[in-house]
Give the backbone structure.
Amino acid sequence: MIAALILPFLIQATAAPAITGLPLGAIGKQALPARGCAAYLWSAGAENALVAMAVADPAQLRLAIDGTVADYARTSQSGGGGFGFAGVTEYRGGDVTATLDMAIAPRAGLSNGAAVPEGTLRIDRPGKDGVVVPVAGLIGCV
């Protein structure tokens, strides 16, 4: 059921442009993980693009920063969540620190997943401006 809900968004995401004026861009079409859950997050501003995929196991976040798609490992988490995710999770890799703060809302009509009705994705890099992007999306589980 959840795959049927996510598929149209994944197909749409393949043509999503980078977000104007931000170093964060679209990550392109993403598949469900082989096991566990993944959160698919779209920018919730004027331009909608699939900007992040957080995977519960292994705990990592996929982003496109300055045109390069990379995975960042989870370094800390706090607060309530569900489906293998916390309310607030920090990821790091190289000089990038990404903080994902998301609300997780199970819904009766969604099986093997949940909605992410709101959240923020903060990107921090030394010597560069920090960026905060509103996000929303879905969690799908295998």
